[in-house]
Batch of 4 targets.
Target 1
Amino acid sequence: MPERQLTFAPHGHMLTNAAVWSADSRWIVYDTRESLDGSVFDGSRIERVELATGRVEVLYESTGAASCGVVTASPVDERVVFIHGPENPTADWRYAAWHRRGVIVRADRPGVSETLDARDIVPPFTAGALRGGTHVHQFSPDAKLVSFTYEDAVLASAAHHAGADGATSAEQNRRGIGVTICNDPVTVSRRHPRNHDGSGFSVLLTRLYDQPAPGSDQISRACEEAWVGTAGYCRVDGTRQRYALAFQGEVVTASGESINEVFLIDLPDQLGLLRQSGAGPLTGTSTTRPVAPRGVIQRRLTDTSGWRFPGIAGPRHWLRSSPDGNQIAFLARDDDGVVQIFTVCPTARPANDADAMLQQITRSEFGVASSFSWSPCGSWIAYVADGSVFRVEVATGRAVRLTTRQPETTGPRPEACVHSPDGRWVAFMRALPLGKSVEKQPQLVNQIFIVSTAVAD
């Protein structure tokens, strides 16, 4: 049978939307959150399951009433990185988007952890440290950088303490995107009990606006990012852009509608430039957001404001790049309102040639219902639709059903559909019953499955 269940324990098994496989395709990493969609951050362990044997290993277990989850693996070594909530939470410092951090563990040294991103929330702030919390960490293809989404505790606190009329002179806390340079330690003062050191130097990359101008490329939020290419992408002049991140940026159309579009951040080839200030202080101030470093360029790739159904749409998903870096995939609705996979070239410029650099990949009657991933050869994209795992051949649009169609309750979950590095498997989750709860309703937990890609080839 091409489909196989890997986990059976009576607790949750939650896959992240990408990078859940070890570099050698032997193991799948996951966390133990119990809610089917992972929205309740209650997991206490990071585990992995061996493909060949079904053997499970615990890589990390949190203490001090902290939770952990959303784990991804390095593409080149034994490291995994995940979200860690606050230990010994208090009324003023409990789990929140701006109160979490990234933690790294090596699978060959389980239980031994390092905090990735330093935190310093008392001015004068420390360069290389953040002032809030990080989320969905992912290694760059060479594993020298880790990307993340970010929210700011300093600005969140300023908004909380604003006057009765809500007036505050501070910029708003808004979700943005940053990176950490690995193995570049940052030490901070202990002027606040929630300050901590980090093993890497962290910076914010996105330029955000509290009130974007309608019809402009200004964004109020950045999220759901992806590294572009295994070696970057080819610029128009034939040179190579080594490090780039695609992401969803929230803009306001000329008619006043807020939608998400595809944006790109080009990072400097020389990572040392990320330590140098650009148009403002890397640390930000007590009332302003941190500013992107020198050599970082942010630009827009799509303009769907004229489409019948504008903006990125469908289930929550992260943008994903083809291995060669030439195509960035996202979900949007076609003219019939059906969610499809589209791609855009990273060199597209909406004012000139963006439409020519857009492609519709799927043409499904029932629509794409999940996050998705590219095969390592770049020929296929795996996703969930119509109660099954599918793969679509990018060049032709030919879609192949890999698993038998199941009812919505037990069919493949929408959160993850991830190719293995060797291209032989796709990992996904199903919610299976454990028995009867006190309300006499089936109690469901996520279990991890794999399916062979051979049928598509």
Note: Helices lie at 153-160.
Target 2
Amino acid sequence: MEQVSEQTPLITNDAVVLGILVLILAFVFKTSSSKHPFFKKFYSVVPSVLMCYLLPSLLNSFGVISGEQSGLYHVASRYLLPASLVLFTVSLDLKEIWKLRHKAGVMFITGTFGILIGGPLAILIVSSFAPDIVGGAGPNAVWRGLATIAGSWIGGGANQLAMFEVFQPDPNLFSAMIAVDVIVGNIWLALLLFGAGKAEKLDRFFKADSTAVNELQEKVEKYRLSIMRIPTMPDTMMVIGVGLGITGISHFFADIIAPWIETNAPYLEQFSLTSGFFWLVVIATTLGVLLSFTKARELEGVGASRIGSVFLYLLVATIGMQMDITAIVSQPGLFLIGFIWVIIHLILLVIVGRLIRAPFFFLAVGSEANIGGAASAPIIASAFHPALAPVGVLLAIFGYAIGTYAAYLCGILMQMVAP
């Protein structure tokens, strides 16, 4: 994620920023486990994971730190994210995960379709009362910039850049669209994190059959309890060694595979196969799954998923510091399109979710696998349970694969309805 901002923040040293983020996480987790009546009531309304996200975003919005100028998000997404995926998948019960495929797939496809038709419908709605907002000609045509958001919201950064090359929006327009992409996407992530804390109530609304999800969680917990022991120093070093070691191996092969495909099969760019980050996530997840068939599976007993959660929450904090809520004031019209777009996406998910009685988990992960991609889909999934993080990753990988095609179609439809 990146954002457009030129103001120098109060704190520019990443070592200081990292210290602040870790202190925020420590504060949130300490207070969320407190028995003090105020904190018990507060966290019954606001999920702790949402606070881990919102507090850094406030520091960014008020110029204390800068998500754009900091290198922490890049470090967290390239090093800590793959390590956490390995540590979450190392104790994976693939057979149980497979049982989730039907409803997870339907909600993911619904989310994709919601983005595909949401863009053109948002343009139609806004053009009915403010045609200037969605107008423009040539490279400045707003629909061209919106097509790049479709690439990001169905696939990821690689798909977004592909749409930039295809539709060639003006660079200044593209910069504004990046702000819309980041801020609307991050506000949506915050709402989903809030919903994750209210999953039981929402499941009652959907009249959901959450048997498969609950069975997976129970089975993971039962297995974890059966192998749990007090970790020694060698145990902890083994956990970190497996997580970061596999991350290093994943980087090694991603650095070979992505450039090779770009040189020898450039047409595969449409599937995001020339993206190093795509291969990083795929290889780390695959190796983690393979390790789940070995004795490495027992690392869960000495805290593999707990350490994976630490890495993931650091990523949550660095994603939070990307959001500058004050940027909405500068381009309110474009943000209005973005919010209407996401609302259409949500309405479709709610309708289909109720029809198939899908748990809120599938709605949230199916949506974020589109809008957030591989960096934030596992965050949403693990907010329900660490064992579910791989579901978010697998769906996000599908998003990379279809992102360019679906976004291109969305761009053509937006061109057809634009005034």
Note: The first helix runs from residue 14 to 32.
Target 3
Amino acid sequence: MSQKQALIVWGGWEGHQPEEVAGIFTGLLREENYAVEVSNTLDSFRDKERLANVDLIVPVWTMGKIENEQLYPLINAVKVGGTGIAGCHGGMGDSFRNEVEYQYMVGGQWVAHPGNGGVTYKVRFKDSEQPLTAGIGDFVVVSEKYYMHVDPAINVHAVTDFDDVEMPVVWTKTYGAGKVYYNSLGHQANIVRMPETLELMRRGLLWATR
């Protein structure tokens, strides 16, 4: 079997420690014998031929702006080419706020984090026998708690509670020919390194890969 190819692109708002988080994902994928290219420019998405050979794209880019010449090769790689896309927190769920097609691909968009960074909350699994979640078990996080607008077509794997509202935390979906994995945890690198988050991301990265 040929080696899987992954592209990790980091940047945007520095408060989410994008370079450090990208390094964590690089380590996870290299442990799984992926060939990983790491970039800190959105111009990496301009190369249609390169993207056609990538099996997984991992964006770690909060807010910012993306040009059409960068966005649409990315969109087409996933939707038409079947390249997988996976990521976490604002690095994928709060990127490029004006780009509704990107949000449609992701399956949701951040809108608020009441209480900011010091909120204690439980992550509960909806399908604890499913391969993406089996054996991890519900766990507590002290971090930002993301309230998101979400696509009703997503497949929800984990949730948290906002009063009487059950808010998706981990989901999967398809976007054309590609698979999409998102996890709203990961405000900073220490949350990504939590054993539960790390294992969820490892499984999600592998699952989304073409």
Note: The chain has seven helices and eleven strands.
Target 4
Amino acid sequence: MTTFLLLALIAISSYFIGSIPFGVIISKLFFGFDIREKGSKNMGSTNTFRILGWKAGVAVQVLDILKGVSAVLLAGFIGSGLNIPNHSPFSNSTIIAFSAGIIAILGHMFTIFAGFRGGKGINTAIGMLLAIAPVDLLVAIGVFLIIVSLSGYVSLGSMFASLALPSSLFVRYNFFGIHISGYLFLIWASIILSVLVIYAHRSNIKRLLKGKENQFSKLQLIKIKFLQPKNK
């Protein structure tokens, strides 16, 4: 099989893996309605937690994370030893793995199985990073937990976590001298991922600015007055 066909197979399989709408499937199969009809109209785990409860929320979160992991691992298997036209200093395996993860995220956001109305792609991104950059993912998760504990806003925590990813890569590589395989590619690719995540949260940003964003008040461990919704 030619290089082009293998790359096409990786791209197509990554998209379809990311496109599996687990939130919609679980809500329709076990609750009799489309999760996108209620709450934030999103099929991701945050809205599932809010509308369907923690069991369904955990199930959707784990399955969406596995989509990112699966896309990267499958790409690594199919693209093992593949020589692509590459005039950059980046390794072929890093480019292929990260690209497969990004395509899976786009599949989640624009799923062909649910009218191209998907989710934000956070959990799928977590799965991708779990397979590629686990240390920096842990840093991003730490930032996420801090922001959520201060604000109660999962969307705000997700956006700050996306910014923490390239920041972690940059600091570890440049200030601590830690070798990171494929660093030059990962730093730029993670910046693109951050932009993608923030773009996916554009409606949340509008609600945050208006003080109307959905808040998990039980998760806000430290109450800060200006972070409280205006409608409360």
Note: The chain is about 65% helix and 0% strand.
